[in-house]
Amino acid sequence: MEFEVESKGLIEELRHHGISERVLAAMKSVPRHLFVPVREQGDAYIDTPLPIGRGQTISAPHMVAIMCDLLDIRDGMNVLEIGAGSGYHAAVMAVLAGSGHIYTVERIESLALSARENLKKAGIENVTVIVEDGTLGLPGFAPYDRISVAAASPEILETLTDQLKTGGKLIIPVGKTYQELYLVTKTNGLKREAKGGVVFVPLLGKKGFRN
Ligand code: SAH
Q1: 186 Cβ below 6 A of ligand 1
Q2: Torsion angle of alpha carbons 195, 197, 201, 207, nearest 10°?
Q3: How many whole angstroms from 82 Cα to the centroid of ligand 1?
Q4: Using one digit for the tens of pLDDT, what is the confidence trace for 51-92?
Q5: Would the pLDDT of 183 be above 70?
Q6: Cα separation of 50 and 31, whole Å?
Q7: Is residue 86 within 6 Å of ligand 1 at its C-beta?
Q8: How far is residue 14 from each of residues 34, 36, 41, 166, 195, measured CA to CA in Å?
Q9: Domains of the chain
Q10: Could you give the residue ranges of the DSSP H alpha helices within 72-136?
Q11: pLDDT per residue as tens digits for the range 37-50
Q12: Distance between CA atoms of 178 and 182, rounded to whole angstroms?
């Protein structure tokens, strides 16, 4: 496999950060270089975000890993992602969901098109990329076991918590320039846990920062 040495090095680095073996195995199976522009491929196995065009970025591998670990995605789950970007994070979640399905929403059509191509090249079949304003969720395929938001939101969005199953979990960065990553669990009410500071591109749209 191309980039095998680089990929192994990255997985080792993530292991030292305390990422679970389950998530490491999923990340090992998804070739990140297929999800970045050709000129960035040499850096695909460095633990850093990279530009993917239209002012957007593919998240750093440790961020994808941490979010997947916190969300605890299990076989058969119905998962929604807001902010498909390159499709990489969705691909890792798709491996974790196994027989389940990932619906990923992207507001920029050209990115959605390349995300679809990237997923195809990587042989991932259980992801559907949809061009929409994800601040409204995706009611057509709700309710979801898990929702993962990959852009910075002004608040924990009710449109999203409303589309979660009871027992479901949402992960969402909240804030403007710097954000706090929140894990929200829906039981009778909503349990919110702050999981540390992060930096994401803004979530734009009806319930986001601006249109
Ligand atoms: N998960 C991606 C990285 C996402 S970057 C990956 O693995 O590559 C955040 C993405 O969210 C950007 O592509 C941006 O266009 C998108 N985005 C921002 N606001 C959005 C909205 N309201 N609905 C859908 N996508 C949105």
Answers
A1: no
A2: 50
A3: 6
A4: 999 999 999 999 999 999 999 999 999 999 999 999 999 999
A5: yes
A6: 15
A7: yes
A8: 20, 20, 19, 31, 18
A9: 63-198 (3.40.50.150)
A10: 88-97, 109-121
A11: 999 999 999 999 99
A12: 13
